[in-house]
Specification:
heterodimer, A: Rossmann fold, 5-stranded parallel β-sheet, B: alpha/beta, Spore Coat Polysaccharide Biosynthesis Protein SpsA, Chain A, 8-stranded mixed β-sheet, globular
């Protein structure tokens, strides 16, 4: 909250005039300067907005052909060639972006113009369909601003997607006359087909000075790492053909090559591969004798067989993506769409969005020299990994390739992440397909640490008014060597806690916190008073645990600090008759929950319970005065993916789950309610996170034939 | 009085207007908010004819892609080779892959020449390479070459500067223009520019350099390494300082810096500005002007005050008690501070524009550091304040992971460098970014074993896999008899009785053929349902990555082990919860013996355990590969020489990987100790010699690893109802209680 409202002035602290001076002139001058300043600001701000754009935008329904025409004089300036040494810190004006609470850059789009040279000939096509889609996507995104003064990034509407469709010098001149060009600083150009015959440069040849280039087909020599963005070559087939996702698994062909314009040398190598490995390799070429009216781009042939393109790609496990004259190939997009694992053979090619995407999970990169070994290399990949790559390939297409919108937004996000690195999107968010995001966990306490024993634990006792029993619990717990503090959460608003003098005298600090409302979730609040990592939640009637048992429980927690470590265990079961989950408190061979009437856990989970509990679970628990422990079990299992640890043998607890219904013995309605909780929580979490295990933790020498007095925890299971 | 009031009023007015002037932007937004809302945002127009627009390239053009007939790939590659040399080197133009094909990735270090001074740090680097499993003494086999000339310090004002490197290099017959050479460097250039000048021509050699700048860095070719001090430990290394995970971070300071500022010259801009963010409360930013001999000449007005403040805080104290640490550039881009902050779990806030971060090819620094911009220093306090406490915790843990995985010793830094280069040789058999950035780190994950995450024991939860539901039993048989003895048969029967058993394998010294079907020729074994495979004898190599093991879990057994089926079943169900650990029956423990100043080892019954004997233990099959491929041959020989303590080595290795103790599970009765492992009274002197050898082994391993990786545990996992007072009929594993 504090952060969202924080305003920062990038120009440094403002000066505050001192009050003591008595010079009249000084004040008058100051006043007039300020007045002038005000008038200037006012003029600037309240004037009809800058002359350049307002008129162009007012009419909504217009044709591309009606846009204003700009004539470029032959001698108008040409920008410098692209500066290969540019990096964000040298060529990018970061002050334009400023600090903002949303951590979003602002992107401005120049209005569309038609550029003609001195003789009135067009410099390029006004705008292509794809570039129009791209600009539309930016304009609809939250990056967009229509205020050129607040923009951090500028996108010219001059279409340079295809270098072959434009005149290089004149396009450069058109760029240079943009109102905020300023050597191209903070300007972003999108290009998919760079270079031209005969040498096919790997980056756009239009001189562009410091402008950033989002280019398809960069090589490591032209790509300015951390400055340019490598983007895919969009395949218009993506929009035309709908290839439904195919489940992963083996397919009819192992390797498929579908490119039409392969260099003969490559084709020879591929054919050698086919000769060697037979049917599983399919090398397609263009069809020579198609009847009229059939678009050649949608057919491929092998000898006399005709295949539909891109559908045929779905028939193969691996699809070859070879470099052509250019490094970036539109076929990559088709291959990914088909869920075929691309085999990329293009040395020094910078893969699309390689700054953020982990291509090793979706593709196989093979050096050109190793082409003959392709078959054996691919054979060595485990089947399970191939399936994952297929899924990953399709996910990359869906998220970053499928439309110009996806390409534009990914590009802007990458630039955004460079400017606000502390708010950047993580590797997992970029790379994990939704299925993985769902099934995986990211444990917030992932580092394997065994917390030092000296830290001790804080016991948190939730109580209402059973003072006598509470005092017995306090006395018992205070005997545990590693107890470092005792916290009593007084949940009764109608009654004051006993006077200080009446409390038991114990060796550790005892704090009483009074709550504003009698809610069960008060037990899991991350009180500042809890200074240790370990928290022991204990009910005010649990007096049957020995000091050894509690101390051992703490030691076990230290070995499993990211789990719930507790005493009474419970189980959830699938009731086949009722078709729903059932709560089980009988003597079972398995556990999946521990009751928090007596359990150790990390304070972090208090924080999660209070602030990150999904759905309405927290309110539901408070309203029903039940199941807070089940909710905690769900929460911890869901975030860590791990089971609970039950410690020490089973003993007859005085119905630990009955505290909520106070004194009443375990009855049928109670069990039904607990079962309801499990079903309710499972539906809120969208899954059943609880893990069932068959083990519990005992001291190493528990029940072993060994002198009791030499055991660290002799007094276990005795009460 | 009147005039004064008027002045005050005027001043008030003036300052109000000033505010309006500076804050005009915000006010305007506020005041005219409703007005602007009505006037719709001027979006990109929806052209009426947008569907009629032409595509940026017609499909033919896209699929045909120019005229490829122009230049054949081979010619093009040849033309690159000449064009992209030295400063534009890439692996495909400047590295000879063919050298690495026959013998794999082998590294040769030039022999030391007499009279050639080598700094302490460089000799550590050389010995790291010699200790690595990639080292070869034969230049013919080598894929990568390392000079014996110390190239770490190329500041010619420094005492360790080696002159005339160019001449020396040209004298080396193997130099070959620097092809396939790796050159280490920590300091380049000198005052005042501190350029990247090395003072000799590295030609086509790969440069592993600290303080690399993005502009001279050859991506995918060079390696950026961290700057480390000459006291950096050779192996092992100190652990990080994060002992507890607290949310919100319980640190006294939010952001700290304490260091020199230079007053003039390169790098001084950033450091001279650092005092602006000092607030004396939670942000402490202290600089001293005392730098070099003649600092007083350049001294500015702040210096005296700054110098006084500087003395009031202790660097170590700040490091320990702060959540974030500013790591600004020094004269060069990298500084010692970076690794210091990383170790201290003080999240580095980098202010070093254009620095190619250490191992950036592998490490995702966004997870462990805040990459700030020198130009936006004043935004740093608010930016770090806005990072959520959970993210701070994740950052802190990640600093510790990175420190421990890649930086805590010279060995790790050098091995990471080698692994990064090795990964480039066969991109299809290399680590994905995920493997580098998740526990236990790239060095411990061998892509030669598999590139599939699910094949390793570490990523099950992260990726929603689970370990396979079957295991393979591996029985080591050393007895000489041609037939199987009774105990083995009983053991095979018990193990194969398990519902989870996939196959049984035995390494036997007398049978050399291997068959995957139940070998009916062997007496009594035709009835064994899971296939039985007999592996060829490899005396001490019980941990070879046998092809026959196809399941994730391996149950390792000795021929004289006695186990019941339910013990096996229960242990396997526990292992499935802890697939990255060793789960087994008989245990032993280690302890520090302060009197002798060495590690002690005991097989007596104790309240703790840290070693699970592999005479009866479940573990992941990946550890076979790690044991054989990751550990250098020298270490394995050492272990073989020492009374076959390879089981201790296995425990040490797994503990070093997981940082966690092994797990002991319920045993039916006292396990019959392997004859060599206990100082049983009956065995007398032979037994105790064995015992002291194992203790020696433990100490040598601790020495080799540079620390004691073993971790102790105080618990044992029993079935939920173990020895509880309930009917035996209710219990799943009643036989364990007998």
């Amino acid at each position: 909250i504090m952060c969202a409202s924080a305003k920062y002035n990038t120009r440094g602290p403002a000066l505050i005039p001192r009050m003591k001076t008595k010079h009249r002139i000084y004040y008058i001058t100051l006043f007039s300067i300020v007045l002038l300043g005000l008038i200037a600001t006012g003029m600037f701000q309240f004037w009809p907005h800058s002359i350049e754009s307002s008129s162009d935008w007012t009419v909504e329904k217009r044709s591309v052909h009606d846009v204003p025409v700009v004539k470029l004089p032959a001698d108008s300036p040409i920008p410098e060639r692209g500066d290969l040494s540019c990096r964000m810190h040298t060529c990018f004006d970061v002050y334009r972006c400023g600090f903002n609470p949303k951590n979003k850059i602002k992107v401005y789009i120049y209005s569309l113009k038609k550029y003609v040279d001195e003789y009135g000939t067009l410099v390029s096509n006004t705008i292509s369909k794809e570039y129009n889609e791209l600009l539309m996507a930016i304009s609809d995104s939250e990056f967009y601003t229509d205020d050129v003064n607040r923009a951090c990034l500028f996108v010219p509407s001059i279409d340079v997607l295809n270098q072959n469709a434009l005149r290089i010098k004149e396009t450069a001149q058109a760029l240079a006359q943009l109102s905020r060009w300023d050597r191209g600083t903070n300007h972003l150009l999108f290009n998919m087909l760079p270079g031209g015959p005969p040498d096919y440069n790997t980056a756009l040849d239009v001189p562009r000075d410091r402008a950033l280039l989002a280019g398809g087909g960069f090589s490591t020599w032209t790509y300015r790492q951390g400055y340019d963005v490598s983007i895919p070559v969009y395949s218009p087939l993506s929009g035309e053909v709908d290839l439904p996702e195919r489940g992963p698994g083996p397919r009819r062909y192992f390797i498929l090559s579908s490119q039409m314009a392969l260099h003969p040398e490559y084709r020879l190598e591929l054919e050698a591969l086919q000769a060697e490995n037979g049917e599983s390799v399919l090398i397609l070429d263009k069809c020579t004798n198609l009847s009229d009216g059939v678009p050649a781009v949608r057919k491929r042939c092998h000898k006399n067989q005709v295949f539909d393109y891109p559908q045929v790609l779905q028939e193969s496990t691996f699809c070859v993506v070879l470099r052509g004259a250019r490094l970036g190939q539109a076929v990559l997009s088709d291959v990914l769409q088909a869920g075929c694992v691309p085999v990329i053979i293009a040395d020094s090619y910078i893969l699309p969005f390689s700054e953020v995407l982990d291509w090793k999970r979706a593709s196989v990169v093979i050096p050109e020299e190793k082409m003959p070994e392709m078959y054996s290399i691919l054979q060595s990949i485990p089947q399970r990994q191939i399936e994952e790559m297929q899924r990953q390939a399709r996910w990359f297409w869906e998220a970053y390739f499928r439309s110009m919108k996806a390409i534009a937004l990914a590009t802007l996000q990458i630039i955004n992440d460079r400017i606000y690195p502390y708010a950047a999107i993580s590797y997992e968010e970029w790379n994990d397909p939704p299925a993985v995001k769902w099934s995986s966990v990211s444990n917030p306490l992932f580092l394997p640490l065994i917390p030092p024993q000296s830290q001790g634990f804080t016991a948190v006792v939730l109580t209402y008014d059973r003072v006598e029993s509470l005092f017995r619990v306090i006395t018992e717990v205070s005997k545990v060597p590693s107890l470092s503090k005792l916290l009593v959460v007084w949940n009764n608003q109608n009654k004051n806690p006993p006077e200080d003098s009446l409390w038991p005298k114990i060796r550790v600090p005892l704090k009483v916190v009074r709550t504003a409302e009698n809610k069960l979730s008060n037990r899991f609040f991350p009180y500042d008073e809890i200074e240790t990592e370990a928290v022991l939640a204990i009910d005010d009637d649990i007096i049957m645990l020995t000091s050894d048992e509690l101390q051992f429980g703490y030691e076990v927690w230290r070995e499993f600090p990211d789990r719930l470590v507790g005493y009474p265990g419970r189980l959830h079961l699938w009731d086949h008759e009722m078709n729903k989950w059932k709560y089980e408190s009988e003597w079972t061979n398995e556990v999946s929950m521990v009751l928090t009437g007596a359990a150790f856990y990390h304070k972090y989970f208090n924080y999660l319970y209070t602030y990150k509990m999904p759905g309405d679970i927290k309110n539901w628990v408070d309203a029903h005065m039940n199941c807070e422990d089940i909710a905690m079990n769900f929460l911890v299992a869901n975030v860590t993916g791990k089971s609970v640890i039950k410690v020490t043998p089973r003993k007859k607890f005085k119905c630990p789950e009955c505290t909520a219904i106070d004194g009443l013995s375990l009855d049928q309605t109670h069990m039904v309610e607990r079962s309801e909780c499990i079903n309710k929580f499972a539906s809120v979490f969208g899954t059943m996170p609880l893990k069932v295990v068959e083990h519990r933790a005992d001291p190493v020498l528990y029940k072993d034939d060994f002198p009791e007095k030499l055991k660290s925890f002799p007094n276990i299971g005795s009460l | 009085m009147q005039t004064r009031k008027k002045y005050i009023f005027l001043t008030f007015l003036a300052s109000w207007l000033l505010l309006f002037f500076f804050g005009g932007d915000q006010l305007r937004r506020f005041a005219f908010f409703s007005g602007r809302k009505a006037e719709a945002r001027r979006n990109w127009p929806r052209w009426t004819d947008r569907t009629l627009l032409r595509s940026f390239a017609d499909p033919e053009e896209l699929q045909r892609d120019g005229d490829p007939a122009l230049l054949s790939p081979r010619e093009r590659r040849a033309s690159w080779l000449s064009a992209y040399r030295s400063s534009r080197c890439r692996m495909e133009t400047c590295f000879d892959f063919s050298r690495c094909e026959r013998h794999g990735f082998k590294v040769f270090t030039y022999p030391q020449e007499r009279g050639q001074p080598v700094s302490e740090t460089y000799s550590k680097i050389l010995s790291s390479i010699e200790r690595s499993r990639y080292h070869t003494p034969d230049p013919e086999e080598a894929c990568l070459f390392i000079l014996s000339i110390d190239t770490l310090d190329r500041d010619h004002l420094s005492a360790q500067y080696v002159p005339n490197v160019d001449e020396k290099i040209r004298g080396f017959p193997l130099w070959n223009g620097g092809r396939n050479h790796l050159i280490f460097n920590l300091y380049s250039g000198t005052w005042p520019g501190y350029t990247r000048e090395l003072g000799f021509d590295i030609g086509q050699a790969i440069l592993a350099k600290a303080s690399f700048d993005t502009q001279s860095f050859r991506p995918g070719f060079d390696v950026s390494i961290p700057l480390f001090s000459k006291d950096h430990p050779q192996r092992g290394g100190d652990r990080g300082w994060l002992y507890q995970d607290s949310v919100p971070p319980k640190k006294k300071y939010l952001l700290v810096f304490k260091g020199k500022r230079y007053l003039t010259g390169i790098g001084s801009g950033t450091r001279n500005a650092l005092h602006h963010i000092h607030n004396g409360k939670d942000i402490i930013s202290l600089t001293t002007c005392k730098h070099g001999k003649d600092w007083e000449k350049h001294k500015d007005t702040r210096c005296d005050k700054d110098n006084v403040d500087y003395e009031r805080f202790d660097y170590q104290e700040l490091l320990h008690n702060s959540t974030f640490c500013i790591v600004p550039r020094g004269r060069r881009l990298g500084s010692f501070r970076f690794l210091e902050a990383l170790q201290a779990a003080c999240i580095p806030v980098l202010l070093s524009d254009g620095w190619e971060l250490p191992f950036s090819e592998a490490i995702d620094w966004g997870k462990a550091a805040v990459v700030g911009s020198e130009r936006l220093l004043l935004q740093i306090p608010s930016a770090v304040r806005c990072i959520h406490p959970e993210r701070v915790l994740a950052f802190q843990q990640h600093t510790q992971f990175l420190w421990d995985a890649y930086f805590s010793s010279v060995d790790k830094i050098v091995h990471t460098t080698l692994e990064i280069i090795k990964d480039r040789l066969s991109p299809h058999r290399s680590r994905s970014r995920l493997l580098w950035n998740a526990l236990p780190g790239g060095l411990l994950v061998l892509p030669d074993f598999s590139t599939h995450l699910g094949d390793f024991p570490f990523y099950y939860l992260q990726h929603g896999y689970s370990p396979s539901k079957k295991f393979t039993a591996l029985i080591r048989v050393v007895s000489q008899a041609g037939s199987l003895s009774q105990p083995i048969l009983r053991l095979i029967q018990a193990v194969s009785g398990s519902q989870y058993c996939a196959q049984v394998g035995g390494a036997e010294s007398c049978i050399t053929q291997c068959s995957f079907q139940g070998s009916s020729g062997m007496m009594g074994l035709s009835a064994v349902e899971p296939p039985l495979c007999v592996l060829p004898p490899q005396l001490s190599d019980r941990f070879l990555p046998f092809e026959a093991i196809q399941t994730d879990a391996v149950l390792s057994l000795d021929e004289d082990t006695s186990l019941s089926t339910s013990e096996v079943d229960f242990a396997f169900s526990v292992w499935r919860s802890f697939p990255e650990r060793i789960v087994g029956f008989p245990t032993q423990s280690h302890f520090w013996d302060p009197e002798q100043g060495r590690w002690g080892y005991t097989s007596k019954w104790t309240n703790e355990l840290s070693i699970v004997l592999t005479a009866a233990a479940f573990y992941h099959r990946y550890y076979h590969s790690l044991f054989t491929e990751y550990l250098p041959a020298g270490l394995r020989e050492l272990v073989d020489g020492l009374a076959a303590c390879e089981d201790i080595l296995m425990n040490v290795l797994v503990a070093a990987v997981t940082k966690l103790p092994p797990i002991k599970v319920t045993q039916r009765k006292q396990h019959k100790e392997a004859p060599h492992s206990a100082p049983a009274k009956a065995k007398g002197t032979a037994g105790s010699r064995r015992f002291s050898q194992r203790q020696d082994c433990l100490n040598q391993l601790a020495d080799w690893f540079g620390y004691m990786p073993l971790v102790s545990s105080q618990l044992r996992l029993d079935p939920v109802l173990y020895k509880d007072q309930v009917s035996v009929l209710r219990k799943k594993y009643p036989s364990l209680e007998r």
